[in-house]
Specification:
The complex is a heterodimer.
Chain A: E1 17-20, H1 32-39, E2 43-49, H2 51-61, E3 71-75, H3 78-82, H4 84-101, E4 107-112, H5 114-118, H6 123-134, E5 139-144, H7 154-163, E6 175-178, H8 183-195, E7 201-204, E8 220-223, H9 229-237, E9 241-242, H10 250-264, H11 269-290, E10 298-301, H12 308-318, E11 322-328, H13 333-341, E12 348-352, H14 355-365, E13 369-372, H15 374-382, E14 387-389, H16 392-395, H17 404-420, H18 423-436
Parallel strand pairs in A: 1-12, 2-3, 2-4, 4-5, 6-7, 6-8, 8-9, 10-11, 10-13, 11-12, 13-14
Helix pairs in contact in A: 7-9, 10-11, 11-17
Chain B: E1 2-4, H1 12-22, E2 26-31, H2 40-46, E3 55-57, H3 69-84, E4 88-93, H4 95-100, H5 104-109, E5 117-119, H6 129-144, E6 155-159, H7 168-181, E7 185-190, H8 196-200, E8 207-210, H9 213-227, H10 239-253, H11 266-271, E9 282-287, H12 289-302, E10 306-312, H13 318-327, E11 332-334, H14 338-348, E12 352-355, H15 357-366, E13 370-372, H16 391-403, H17 409-417, E14 459-460, E15 463-464, E16 466-467, H18 469-477, H19 480-496, E17 501-502, H20 504-514
Parallel strand pairs in B: 2-3, 2-4, 4-5, 6-7, 6-8, 9-10, 9-12, 10-11, 12-13, 16-17
Antiparallel strand pairs in B: 14-15
Helix pairs in contact in B: 1-6, 6-9, 7-16, 14-15, 18-20, 19-20
The chains are: A alpha/beta, B alpha/beta.
Chain lengths: 437, 516
Amino acid sequence: MNQPTNISGATCRDAPILKERGQREVFCGLTGIIWLHRKMQDAFFLVVGSRTCAHLLQSAAGVMIFAEPRFGTAVLEEGDLAGMADAHEELDREVDRLLSRRPDIKQLFLVGSCPSEVIKLDLHRAAERLTVKHAPHVRVLNYSGSGIETTFTQGEDACLASMVPVLPETDERELLLVGALPDVVEDQAVDLLNKMGIGPIRVLPAHRSAEAPGVGPNTVYACLQPFLGDTSAELDRRGARMIQAPFPFGEEGTTLWLRAIADEFGVDDETFARVTDAPRARARTAIANAAKALQGKTIFFMPDSQLEIPLARFLTRECGMEAIEIGQPYIHKGLVGPDMDLIPAGPTISEGQDVDKQLDRVRAARPDLTVCGLGLANPLEAEGLTTKWAIELVFTPVHFYEQAGDLAGLFSRPVRRRELLKLEAASASKETREVAR
Amino acid sequence: MKLTVWTYEGPPHVGAMRVATAMKGLHYVLHAPQGDTYADLLFTMIERRNHRPPVSYTTFEGRDLGTDTASIFRNTCRNAYDRYKPQAMIVGASCTAELIQDDPGGLAEAMDIPVPVVALELPSYQRKENFGSDETFYQIVRALAQPMERTQEITANLIGPLALGFRHRDDIEEVKGLLYEMGIGVNVVAPFDATPEDIAKLGQAHFNVLMYPEHAETAARHLERTCGQPYTKTVPIGVGATHEFVAEVAQICGVEPKKDLSRLRQPWWSKSVDSTYLTGKRVFLFGDATHVKTAARIARDEMGFEVVGLGCYNREFARDIRKLAKDYGVEALITDDYLEVEKAIEDLAPEMILGTQMERHIGKRLGIPCAVISAPVHVQDFPARYSPQMGWEGANVIFDTWIHPLVMGLEEHLLHMFREDFEFHDEAGASHHGGHAPKPIAEVPAPEPVATQPEAPAETGSDVMVWLADAERELKKIPFFVRGKAKRNTEKFAAERGVSEISIDTLYEAKAHFAR
């Protein structure tokens, strides 16, 4: 009962992928900072970029910007573009100033942006230089969150991948959970695994740099998010081995994810059932309640976070929806393959984007629900289409059993609201009155 | 390099987007990497627009660099024209594309697009959003507007209102009303809702109303030179300024300064006895130069506040604001660093802040009431209801908006009378401030035993003040919302007299000294 349901015939893994290039309506990887800095409590993220980068972070972080955030932008000025040697001096000076003002910072990430990459400012060298200068108190790392290299959640991937080479070496057989999740969800995952006798369990990223996990040839790891391709490659390079599984969205996804780990650690069926039966039943009930409005409805995913394939799997298999198109910014089959296996062929699978052409397809298909970014949501609503803005899926706790109902709820809320509001009826009756008069 | 967390202004291409999004029939092709589309959501979310901004991005990637970014630009340009068939286009580069030097203007010119294409040079590493909008509007006007024969009846252009402008939508209606009362028609409003064809007709108006100098002053000067159109120098925000604006228009047009004051309630509201308590409230002003300038006059002359500090974030207007500050006998603060603004507010300890979204948060942190008078603003300041800042109705709106965060006269009086009541204990806060609902108190606190050692003495400048225990106790009897001022005044009074220990007598001597 705990094995993946076999799907007869072709699945999405075999389906041809529609690859498009053109205008992309997505965030760049810098936005990952907004949730990463909450998770890593002694880290500071210093973007080296332009006013546009600062403005992006401010617009995306919303009110968070007022809460003494541990991120900022070293805005390049005209002088920095002319002389590169000076740019390094300037960077050192800004970092010194920052670290003296925030002595609680233990990890500093220099985050590359489009401007810093185009002018080929070598942040890797700067990070090494600054690590030496501020050792042992602060370690300085670098990664790129630029739009020319990364899309939205890939920023987290780039960040975690930059940490892997400097993780301590270990020969312990440990389970490593990879991906930044809200604490409440992470605790649930660890608790479920502990109850099956699996451990020790470490997480990447850790809350504090002192708690950084070790990694080595006996490490096995499971990804919590589908966008961690580079991090996974770096872990493999350190000799660790990935446990392949669908991602823990919904009751089925969570069960299959746990089962894969349980198999790796030799957990018997009885123990597995004892630990998971109750939360599975809870999750099924919660999904059934929240998904009533979704039964038989069609859904169209615009590319955003790489969560699209696992979420489409959840919505089609557990909520009774029908997918028309599943767009992803990138498709890493090594990670989302198991999810693709569970979706019968049929929906268009697209990678990349030409937003105008994709919107033409949305308009032609008129899906019941379109998952898209905030730049597109209101314009589509104004055209009479119902939308679910995608960014919320990254910030809200949606993984594992206890959040399965909430996850379905995020999609059913706009559909229910559509059915609740009688705005057209109200204005129509007003017109009728006016005609009658 | 400069470390920045909050920016008052975006990069200049966002200013250009604000012009493009305000207009109809215009399309902007922006040479920019993936991710720069984030700016779309400012328009669709904060302003809640029901359409995508008319902007096509080239979305070049790392692997395109050094090879074919120019051809990506050409393709995007071609596709944008074919799909949207605009009356005119603007083309330019964002900060990253500025570095790869593809010259969007030159590329577009070589493409034979059958409509006017205006090239924008927006130096991203030197200038900011307001420059971007001013320069973009100027370039569009320069390319499309021609000297023309004047309309038969007297008409004006309203220039400056933009997408994402603070109350621009309703200010337009208010200014139209002011002109209508004098029998003056409106030729074109631009950029807001104007098409490139409308821009071509700017020349037939008799004069220009420059609504927002930040966004259209360069265009106004250009039209004055090329089309011989004078433009208004007074921005009609506040009762006095609106009277002056009407007089200025009447003089330009040679018409009667007719006004319909029947709906103007602000002056009586301000005179009514309940407003007596507003007298001398110490306010700090910060925002864009135009709104700060007009707000300072309203604050002092129409509300009876005391302006204790003012400043702006747009350096283009630094000279104006310095001059204004001199008139008010205060120090001007010209900065785009919110930490400096926060410091100034902390030092001045005003009773009210009039500022932007950022000052609203500073106010929240320091427990000082704040009203928003200028961009940048968040979604709540693009309201569904009619709420102009300009004209007579604008004066009504401003009065309500500014006094709402303050504890009003009767309420203040009652709080004084019943200040010993447990419901008005310090932590209760003002009843209408969200998030400060009175917490239930387990027991009425007994009078605090006074520590023999004074707590960490507050530092003011170089002098270290020590509050004696009885004075400290007396200070705590003063209602929380005036205690900061009392403490500050007392310490200032003591410092001026070289007193380092503050007793009850010092406290009351200071009170007598500062009594108004």
